[in-house]
DNA sequence: CAATAAATACCCACTAGTACGGATTTACAA
DNA sequence: TTGTAAATCCGTACTAGTGGGTATTTATTG
C-alpha cells in the first residue's frame, strides 16, 4: 500500500459532506499543485479539470458541479465569459476566480457576475482554502488584496471609471491596429470624432505615445 | 496527531539522500502547489522559497542549495539574471527553470547559461518530478515541448535569429516610448540609421503598424 | 431647472514617422 | 576573392497622427 492510498483512507474517514470541485487553468503545473493541495482537504473532491473554458463547459453541461475554480486568463474564451455561461447553464454552481489581475475594473466586472470568491495567484494557498471553506458555508470570499482594492475604489471613485465605454471601445480598435479612419468607418462616426476620443484617451491615461497606450491596454486586459 | 505529521514520518522513513530545494516564483499559489506536490516525494526537501530573485539571492548567498527551481518572469530582476548570478556565486547549485515561455530565443538564451532543466508551466507536474529525478542523477532534463522547439529550431534555423542584436536593442528602445531621435542620441548613431533599422524591423516582423510591433515585443518578452 | 458628462464634429498648424529610393564600411564565410 | 549580412547614413515626398482650440446634442443627476 502506498502513501497515496493510505492518505485516501484518512481522507474518507473525515469526509462528511464533500463538495465536488472542477478546476480550470491553462497551466497544468498550477492545476496539479492545487489538486495536490486539495488532496489534504477532506471537504472537497476534485471531479475534473480542464485547460480551457470550452472544455470546462463541455463537462459542466453534462455533470453537476458544486464549485468551479477558474483562472481569469485563458486561451480563447476567457474566464469572464466562462463565468457568464456557467451562471446561465448551471446557476447552482459556485465559482471562485483565481487570477493574476488586481485591476479594479476587471475585479468589479467579474464580481458583478455573482462569483462566490476571488483569490489572487499572489495570495498564499491558505486564502484559497479559506475561500473554499467560505463558499461551502454559503458565504462570499474575497482575498485581502481584493478587499483592499474595493475599499480603495470606494475612497477614490474617480479612478475606477477612467475611460468611458466608448473610449474603451475605441482603445480596443486602436490596439487592433486600426487607423482613425478605419475606426470611424467601423463605428459609423466621423474620423474627427475618433480623433477627439483618442485625445481624451491619451489625456485620461496620462500617456503621450502610442506605445504607452498599448502598454496601458495590456495592463488593463484590453488586448 | 494530524495527517501532515503522519506524513512527515513516512517521508522520513523512505528518505535516503534527500536533495534540498529552493523555490522562486512570484505567485504564492503556484509556490504552495509545488510545495504540496513535493511533500509526497521523499527525495527532496524544500528548504526555502522566495517571491523575487533578489530575495532568493539573499538566501543562496548564505545557504547551500542543491537545487533551485525558479520562474522565468519575476518582478524586478528576472529569471535569466537570477540564473546568471547563481551560477557565479554558487556553481554547484543545479537549476530548473519553470516558465510560461516557449519562444525559441528565450529558451536558448537560458539554456546557454547551463541550467539543468526547463519545464513549462503548461506541462503536467510529472514533468517537473521527472526533471527533479533527472537532475538528482546528474542529467539535464527538458520537457517534451522544449525538446520539440529545439529540434524545430534546428530544422528551421532561419526563424530563430529573426532580428539582429542591434535591431533587438532598437526595438526595446521603441517599446520604451523613445522617438527615433532619442534612440539615435542614446546609441550615438544618426536618426537616419534608426529609421533604417526600424524599417528592417517592420519588414522582418511582418508588422506594419507600431501597435503590431509592440505586440510582437510583448510576445517575445522584450517588454 | 441647472449642471455635468458623454458622444458627436470641425479647424489649423505642426511633426514624427512611412515609403520609396540609394549608398558605404566592416567582417566573416564560401 | 567574391559574396553576403550587418550596421551605418542620406534625400524626397507624403501621410497619419498630435496638440491646440471650439461647439452641439443628448442624457443623467443633484
From TrEMBL, chains A, B:
One of its GO terms (biological process) is phosphorelay signal transduction system. GO terms for molecular function: DNA binding. InterPro entries: CheY-like_superfamily, NreC/VraR/RcsB-like_REC, Sig_transdc_resp-reg_C-effctor, Sig_transdc_resp-reg_receiver, Tscrpt_reg_LuxR_C, WalR-like. Residues 20-136 form the Response regulatory domain. Keywords: DNA-binding, Phosphoprotein. Pfam families: GerE, Response_reg. This is DNA-binding response regulator. Residues 156-221 form the HTH luxR-type domain. It comes from the Bacteria. The modification 4-aspartylphosphate is found at residue 71.
